[in-house]
What does this fold into?
Amino acid sequence: MSDDTIRLVTIGRMFRRRRRLLAVLAVLGALVGYGASLLFPPRYTASASVLLPGAWEERELLTQAEIATSSVVVDRAAAELGWSGVDGSELRDRVSARVADGNIIEVSGTAGTPERAQRLSDQVVQQFVTFAARVAGADVDSEAAARPEALRQLVARTSRRITELADAVDPGRTVESVQTRTELAKLRTALREAVTRLDQADPAADRATMVVMGPAVRPAGEAPPTRTQLVGGGALLFLLLGVVGHLAAARMSRRPRTAAEIAAALGSTPLGTVEVPDEQPAHRPEDRGPWVRIRRLLDLDVRWDAPAPHTSGDEAGGRVRHRRVCARLRDRLPAPRRLLAVVPDGDGTARRAAGQLLAEAGGDPLLRVVEVPAHRPVVPDRDEESGVLVVLSAGRWTAEELAGLAEACADAGHEVVGAVLADPVRTRPARSAGRSRSAGRPRDAATPALAVADDTTGGGAR
It folds into this structure.
């Protein structure tokens, strides 16, 4: 898993094998989201729109949106509302404005109830229109109104000067004088028409009138995030954290998975693989306690990152592979010897594999199965045995744990003869009862291995 690409089949296998843990994480996340919804009471948002007639540039519209949420407008709205314990500084966090299409500014107000949200939005809009009209009116009265008036006075003086010039011209005596008087009259008329058109096209007068496009609509639902969104978001967040945590742990895992890596960690030689039917491990009397029950309930004892067991061949082929393992083991022994088959505690698959190997060996070599804890291994001292055969599952134990197991064997005076991997497989369904009985030894032949699996006192199986 540490070097493999994460695929959808890996995610699916995680959900199948750790569904209880992931479900508990999702429920825990939903509870956290629900608790967050209690800390943050529901909010309702209402909006009202203001139309700005005339020609406006985008920067000017943005400026008007900033004015709508300014402290002057919001403070005046708070004073008009008169809500106890709510001032302008608090309302500024609840009021927002944005520029919509068509010179429209949309003002939104958020409050704890739909009625308050509607009143807040309407009041802010009203104060905004009033303040903007006052600012525009002040500009018109001061600068914008002073400039047209000065222009009118200049035009009046120019008109009088034109009249004086026309009177000074010799009336009607020459053609040039008549043409001059006519041109001066046209100039005076053009100036008056220009002043009239300027008064009609005054942009400040158009911009001073803003239109409120109706009262705010009372909101029918809560503003996001709602309680449902918080609950769903919390469940989804915790579920994703659980999935990412599983993938990260599997990616960072450095557990040996191949026979060569496991044998190298033990300082020994791989002898082969023993196929074991994949089945639910039996609960032993020592597997009790609250933590064990919690692990069992949350499927923490199930390896999710291991590939799905492959389908085994026929029983005869499995027995041939078992005999080959025993033959390799005998080849490594100079003479018939007694061996100690060491199985890490908690590895049920390896325990069943050791039982099958013990039944297949038939006393040559003579094996005694013991289980030792992997975190603090203690191997029985050397008695009649002159070697250790380690039987374990691939990808379950770390290199440090395997090295500690090898050191425990050396401290007890044992030589690690070899390592055998337990490979869980799915058994094929039996085609007939007669064929099952004639396929070889009965299944009960492996029972003595389980009977001696708990013998850690040093007594041998004779």
Observations:
- The mean pLDDT is 78.
- The chain has three domains: 8-40+225-252, 44-212, 259-452.
- Residues 8-40+225-252 form one domain.
